[in-house]
Specification:
binds NADP nicotinamide-adenine-dinucleotide phosphate; oxidoreductase; ADH-like_C; EC 1.6.5.5; NADP; alpha/beta; Quinone Oxidoreductase, Chain A, domain 1
């Protein structure tokens, strides 16, 4: 089968395109013919060997996948060859992928393969942050940091669908796209006066919930607009794993600071099912671009340049 893979850590140029043996479904697994597989920020971490990840031998990148069932392994019931499905696994930037049956779900009729493939990693993370950890309620003020990113776009859409008043931060060129997803206002998070700009943009100058995935100084800055009793969920550290926290302010404000954690397989399956259901009724996931698998290097370049809003998806013919 055709696959996009890496052998050694490196830049997008280290990606190889070639023919590898197609996988076979072991017990509890489903073999899928891949139609669409999104490119995730974590794929670039694995390729570069950063964020504690490393390549150990030939590695097909990709986690999210939509396609059709080809065959099932021992003990798998409920799937028939030809079924349209969506799943979460590893090694999806290829023509075939095996997915644990527990992480493979019927593709909702409202989502085509490209939009469904956008959901698993980013959608389930946004769902967990917005619904499970922050417990966003109608009318609450929610600030989504890096709102143009994959997790950010889902977080905006989900919080908006739940009836929250949603605000975002992004590069200025992406603000209109974030507004179109449901944000009432968007602040440029590269401004040196980002805190003052947020205070001016937010009702009452503060928010009840922050969904954060950048880290570093931006994490410390946005915390300054979290209302007393507010909740912040950290679900990524794209820029920096470290941030400054004023413990006296934490004590006085009574904030709840949560990390997304490393949920087990059952929790991930639950989040994935809920995210697919929510995306099917909330709004179509934001797709920045699709590239044929053969152009995976171009797609990686674009992701690393952060020149996109939402999800970049690879397709196979
Ligand atoms: N723990 C989990 O289970 C989990 C799951 C999914 C994602 N994550 C993590 O969450 C983070 C966001 O994921 P994602 O898929 O949404 O990523 P993404 O699609 O690449 O979006 C990242 C966004 O961050 C913004 N940004 C701000 N400062 C940046 C900087 N210094 N470098 C690069 N981008 C910067 C960029 O937008 P602007 O151009 O507007 O600045 C970009 O839109 C990543 O760190 C990812 O690893 C964790």
């Amino acid at each position: 089968m055709l696959a996009s893979y890496v052998v050694d850590s490196g830049s997008p140029d280290s990606l190889r395109l070639g023919r590898l043996e197609a996988p076979t479904p072991g017990p509890g697994h489903v073999l899928m013919r891949v139609q669409a597989a999104s490119l995730d920020r974590v794929d670039t971490y694995i390729r570069r060997g950063t964020h504690g990840m490393a390549v150990t031998g030939p590695t097909i990148l990709g986690r999210d996948v939509a396609g059709t069932v080809v065959a099932t392994g021992a003990g798998v019931t409920g799937f028939t060859p030809g079924d349209a499905v969506v799943g979460l696994t590893t090694g999806t930037h290829a023509e075939y992928a095996v997915v644990p049956a527990t992480h493979c779900f019927p593709r909702p009729a409202a989502l085509d393969a490209v939009h469904a493939a956008a959901v698993p990693t980013a959608g389930r993370t946004a769902y967990d942050a917005v619904v499970n950890l922050a417990g966003v309620r109608p009318g609450e003020r929610v600030l989504v940091v890096a709102a143009a990113g994959a997790v950010g776009t889902f977080a905006v859409q989900y919080a908006h669908h739940l009836g929250a008043r949603v605000f975002g931060t992004s590069a200025p060129a992406k603000a209109d796209a974030v507004r179109a997803l449901g944000a009432l206002d968007v602040v440029d998070h590269y401004r040196p006066d980002v805190v003052e700009s947020l205070r001016a943009a937010l009702p009452g100058g503060e928010v009840d919930v922050i969904v954060e995935s950048v880290g570093g100084t931006l994490w410390s800055d946005v915390l300054k607009v979290l209302a007393p009793g507010g909740r912040l969920v950290t679900c990524g550290v794209t820029a920096d794993s470290h941030a400054h926290l004023h413990l006296g302010r934490l004590m006085v404000k009574g904030w709840t600071l949560r990390g997304i954690g490393r949920p087990g397989p059952e929790a991930v399956a639950c989040q994935l099912r809920e995210a697919l259901t929510l995306s099917a009724v909330a709004a179509a996931p934001a797709i920045a671009a699709t590239y044929p698998l053969e152009q995976a290097t171009v797609a990686h370049d674009r992701l690393e340049a952060s020149e996109f809003v939402g999800r970049i998806v690879l397709t196979t013919s």
